[in-house]
From TrEMBL:
<dbReference type="GO" id="GO:0032259">
    <property type="term" value="P:methylation"/>
</dbReference>
<dbReference type="InterPro" id="IPR014777">
    <property type="entry name" value="4pyrrole_Mease_sub1"/>
</dbReference>
<dbReference type="GO" id="GO:0008276">
    <property type="term" value="F:protein methyltransferase activity"/>
</dbReference>
<keyword id="KW-0949">S-adenosyl-L-methionine</keyword>
<dbReference type="InterPro" id="IPR012818">
    <property type="entry name" value="CbiE"/>
</dbReference>
<dbReference type="GO" id="GO:0009236">
    <property type="term" value="P:cobalamin biosynthetic process"/>
</dbReference>
<dbReference type="InterPro" id="IPR000878">
    <property type="entry name" value="4pyrrol_Mease"/>
</dbReference>
<dbReference type="InterPro" id="IPR035996">
    <property type="entry name" value="4pyrrol_Methylase_sf"/>
</dbReference>
<keyword id="KW-0808">Transferase</keyword>
<feature type="domain" description="Tetrapyrrole methylase">
    <location>
        <begin position="1"/>
        <end position="176"/>
    </location>
</feature>
<keyword id="KW-0489">Methyltransferase</keyword>
<dbReference type="Pfam" id="PF00590">
    <property type="entry name" value="TP_methylase"/>
</dbReference>
<comment type="pathway">
    <text>Cofactor biosynthesis; adenosylcobalamin biosynthesis.</text>
</comment>
<dbReference type="InterPro" id="IPR050714">
    <property type="entry name" value="Cobalamin_biosynth_MTase"/>
</dbReference>
<keyword id="KW-0169">Cobalamin biosynthesis</keyword>
<protein>
    <submittedName>
        <fullName>Cobalt-precorrin-6y C5-methyltransferase</fullName>
        <ecNumber>2.1.1.-</ecNumber>
    </submittedName>
</protein>
Amino acid sequence: MITIAGIGPGDSQLRVYGVESCLADADVVVGSVRQLDTLKIDQNKRMKLPKLSDLREYVNNHLSLNIILLASGDPLMYGIGTWAINNFGRENVRILPGISSIQYCFHRFGLSENDTFFTSSHGRKPDFDFLLMHQQVGMVTDDEIGPYEIAAEIRRRHQHRMIYVGEDLSYPTEKLSIFDETNVENRKYKLNVVIIKNA
């Protein structure tokens, strides 16, 4: 059995009840160094997240162990939960939900999530013609398609939108910014979520 534990956007106070007891019972906890350090996982339990092909092989060879795989945010919102179900079968996977970074970002800006299209630009090129048909979009971004690139795509289509950017959400370095398509700063953004909203 493998458990995918959603640990929320970062702050321990935003973790869903049950994650701590799940971690206490684990034989092995798999995650990024940042996740493992944040949760203070014992050295004898921790395993740095390997390539997914290696992780698949490890889990398949150790299904008798209580393996916990950490997921930032919510495992089934552009997270590793879907990968786990597809690779190990629903009967071998338990999912502990978490607060997604997108959900948290909406709350920090005081914006309703109703009728929002949720997506991610991680490792993919979004269809901006399709995205901008929506009144509101919540998007997890990456280094390739971030706030500045999104604003450029909006300008290219001669449209107007408000762009809300949340960086390092729930961490002490959290930064919240509000732009429109004309004034998004051309800089490197930390881990971030972008909300695109019709003005």
